[in-house]
C-alpha cells in the first residue's frame, strides 16, 4: 500500500528498474527508474539534513530538468509541501507567492540566479539552495540512496500551485497525497497510456499539465523527455530520434509544430496520439494531424482538479471532433444552469465536478474555498454544452479568463496592475484572437484627465509599467482607448460588449 504520493516512484523503480525514466533533451542525460529513484532519495536526505522538516513548504524554481523531477518526488517522500514556482513571473509576483505560502526553503537552478538575487534580499530567512552548485553536487554524491523516512500521510498536503483568481489575487491550490493518487488511478483507467510509452513533456513542471504527466509516467512506466524550451523543429527531431509515442501540448504548440517544415519529412510512425488541453483545438488542426495518422485527444481540466477530468478517447477522437469527451473513470462531471439543474443537450451551462481528485482548498483563503467547492462539487466557472450522447464541448469561460499560449491570464490581475498607473482612470481587459498564441490580452483604457500626452506616449508608459510587474505572457498586446467602459446596473464591466467593440485580432 502506498503511504504517500512520493512512493509512486519507489514502486516503479522496483518494477521497472532498467526502463528509462527521464531524458534531458538539452544535455542528453538519461536516467533509469532505478537511477531516478536513487537520486531522488539522495536529494530528500540532503534537504532533511539542512533542517527542512515535514510540513514545510519548499519552493522549486527550475526549468524542466531531471533534478526538478527529483525535487517533486523528494518533497513528496519526505513530507515537504512542493510549491511550484513559475520562473516566467516577475520578482514582485514571485515575492507574493513566497510570502503567502510561507516557504522555508527554495531550490533553484543556477540559470535563474538573476531572478533569485532580489528575492534573496527580500526573504533572508528563507534557505536558498542552488541546485546546480558544487556544494550541492558534493552533498548529493555523499548522501545515502536508501528511502528517506516517510514524512507525510495520504491526508497531508502534497503540493501547492498558484492560480490567479477573478479578484486578481493569486490563490495557492492545495492538493493532498490522497487526491493525487486518486487522480492517477482515474487518469490511468481512462487514457491510452501504456507501459514503455515514450512521451515529451514540454509543458513546464510548475504547471499542472507538466507535473501531472510526470506523475502519470512514473505510475504507468513511461519514459519522459524533459524539454526546457519549446522549439517546433526540436519536437519533430525528438519524435523521430526517440521514437516518441505520445505528447501533451496546447493549441499554440500544435499550431507551431504543424506549420514547421520538418513536419513533412520527420518519421512520425511511432507517434500514436497528442493530448491537447488549455483551450479548444481548432477542428482544422485536428483534421490536419488526423491526415498524418495522428489522433488529437482533447483534454479538459484545471489546476484545482489536479489536471484532466474529461478526455476524448481514441474510439471517439475522429467521430466527435471538437469535443473534450467524457468524464474520466471515477470522476463526476455535470453541466448545470444557475439553479444547479442539469442542462439539456445543446444548452450552455457551467461545468461542475465531484470526486476524490479535488483540491483540499485554497491556502489561507477559506472564503474562496467555500465559494468554489459547494456540497462537494467544484464550480469551474467554465461554460460547456453536452450532446445527446453526453459528450462535453467546452465553449467559453465565464470568469473571463484568457488562455495565451497555454498560460492562464486573468483579466482582473492585469487590470489591477494597470489601475495602479496614475494615467489610468478605468480599465477593462479582454482576450483577442491570436493566430500565434490562441488569445492575447487587450487593455481598454479610460484615461485620467491629468494625462496630457499623446496616446502613443501613454501606450509606451503603460508597456514599461506592466513589464516591471507582470510576466510577459500576461502583458497586453494591444491598448485601446475609450471615454467610458460599458457596465451593467451592478457596476460590472460588460466584457461581451468590449469584445464586440474590439474584436481584434491581436497584433503578433
In short:
The chain has 508 residues and is an alpha/beta fold.
Textual characterization of the structure:
About 50% of the residues are buried. The chain is globular. The strands form five sheets. A nine-stranded mixed β-sheet has the order 2-1-10-9-11-12-13-14-15, with helices on both faces. It has a seven-stranded mixed β-sheet with strand order 6-5-3-4-7-8-18, with helices on both faces. Strands 16, 17, 19, 20 and 21 form a five-stranded antiparallel β-sheet that branches. By secondary structure, it is of the alpha/beta class. α1 (about 5-15) packs antiparallel against α2 and α2 (about 35-50) packs across α3. A hairpin with a 2-residue loop joins β22 (about 400-405) and β23. It has two domains: about 5-145 and about 155-385, ANL, N-terminal domain (Rossmann fold), CATH 3.40.50.12780; about 400-500, GMP Synthetase, Chain A, domain 3 (2-Layer Sandwich), CATH 3.30.300. The protein has 15 helices and 26 strands. The longest helix has 17 residues, at about 35-50.
Name the descriptors.
508 residues, GMP Synthetase, Chain A, domain 3, globular, 15 helices, seven-stranded mixed beta sheet, nine-stranded mixed beta sheet, Rossmann fold, alpha/beta
Amino acid at each position: 500500500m502506498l503511504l504517500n504520493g512520493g512512493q509512486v516512484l519507489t514502486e516503479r523503480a522496483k518494477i521497472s528498474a532498467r526502463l528509462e525514466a527521464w531524458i534531458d533533451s538539452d544535455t542528453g542525460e538519461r536516467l533509469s527508474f532505478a537511477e531516478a529513484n536513487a537520486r531522488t532519495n539522495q536529494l530528500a536526505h540532503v534537504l532533511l539534513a539542512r533542517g527542512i522538516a515535514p510540513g514545510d513548504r519548499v519552493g522549486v524554481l527550475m526549468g524542466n530538468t531531471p533534478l526538478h523531477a527529483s525535487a517533486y518526488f523528494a518533497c513528496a517522500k519526505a513530507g515537504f509541501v512542493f510549491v511550484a514556482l513559475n520562473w516566467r513571473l516577475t520578482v514582485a509576483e514571485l515575492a507574493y507567492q513566497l510570502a503567502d505560502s510561507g516557504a522555508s526553503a527554495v531550490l533553484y537552478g543556477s540559470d535563474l540566479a538573476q531572478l533569485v538575487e532580489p528575492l534573496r534580499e527580500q526573504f533572508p530567512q528563507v534557505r536558498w539552495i542552488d541546485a546546480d552548485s558544487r556544494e550541492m553536487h558534493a552533498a548529493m554524491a555523499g548522501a545515502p540512496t536508501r528511502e528517506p523516512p516517510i514524512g507525510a500521510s495520504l491526508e497531508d498536503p502534497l503540493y501547492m500551485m498558484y492560480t490567479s483568481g477573478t479578484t486578481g489575487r493569486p490563490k495557492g491550490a492545495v492538493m493532498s497525497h490522497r487526491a493525487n493518487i486518486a487522480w492517477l488511478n482515474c487518469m490511468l483507467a481512462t487514457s491510452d497510456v501504456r507501459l514503455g510509452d515514450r512521451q515529451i513533456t514540454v509543458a513546464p513542471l510548475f504547471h499542472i499539465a507538466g507535473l501531472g504527466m510526470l506523475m502519470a509516467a512514473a505510475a504507468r512506466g513511461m519514459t519522459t523527455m524533459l524539454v526546457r524550451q519549446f522549439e517546433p523543429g526540436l519536437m519533430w527531431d525528438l519524435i523521430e530520434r526517440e521514437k516518441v509515442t505520445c505528447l501533451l501540448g496546447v493549441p499554440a504548440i500544435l499550431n507551431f509544430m504543424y506549420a514547421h517544415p520538418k513536419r513533412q519529412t520527420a518519421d512520425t510512425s511511432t507517434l500514436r496520439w497528442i493530448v491537447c488541453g488549455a483551450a479548444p483545438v481548432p477542428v482544422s488542426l485536428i483534421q490536419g494531424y488526423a491526415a498524418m495518422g495522428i489522433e488529437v485527444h482533447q483534454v479538459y481540466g484545471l489546476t484545482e482538479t489536479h489536471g484532466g477530468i474529461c478526455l476524448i478517447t481514441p474510439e471517439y477522437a475522429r467521430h466527435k471532433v471538437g469535443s473534450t469527451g467524457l468524464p474520466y473513470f471515477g470522476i463526476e462531471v455535470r453541466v448545470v444552469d444557475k439553479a444547479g439543474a442539469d442542462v439539456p443537450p445543446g444548452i450552455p451551462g457551467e461545468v461542475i465536478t465531484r470526486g476524490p481528485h479535488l483540491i483540499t482548498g485554497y491556502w489561507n483563503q477559506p472564503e474562496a474555498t467555500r465559494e468554489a467547492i459547494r456540497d462537494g462539487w467544484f464550480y469551474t466557472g467554465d461554460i460547456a454544452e453536452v450532446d445527446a450522447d453526453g459528450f462535453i464541448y467546452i465553449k467559453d469561460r465565464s470568469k473571463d479568463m484568457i488562455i495565451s499560449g497555454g498560460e492562464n491570464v486573468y483579466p482582473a490581475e492585469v487590470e489591477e496592475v494597470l489601475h495602479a498607473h496614475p494615467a489610468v482612470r478605468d480599465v477593462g481587459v479582454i482576450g483577442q484572437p491570436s493566430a500565434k498564441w490562441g488569445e492575447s490580452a487587450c487593455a481598454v483604457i479610460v484615461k485620467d484627465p491629468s494625462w496630457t500626452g499623446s496616446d502613443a506616449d501613454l501606450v509606451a508608459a503603460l508597456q514599461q509599467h506592466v513589464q516591471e510587474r507582470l510576466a510577459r505572457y500576461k502583458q497586453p498586446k494591444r491598448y485601446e482607448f475609450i471615454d467610458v467602459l460599458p457596465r451593467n446596473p451592478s457596476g460590472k464591466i460588460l466584457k461581451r460588449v468590449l469584445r464586440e467593440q474590439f474584436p481584434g485580432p491581436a497584433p503578433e
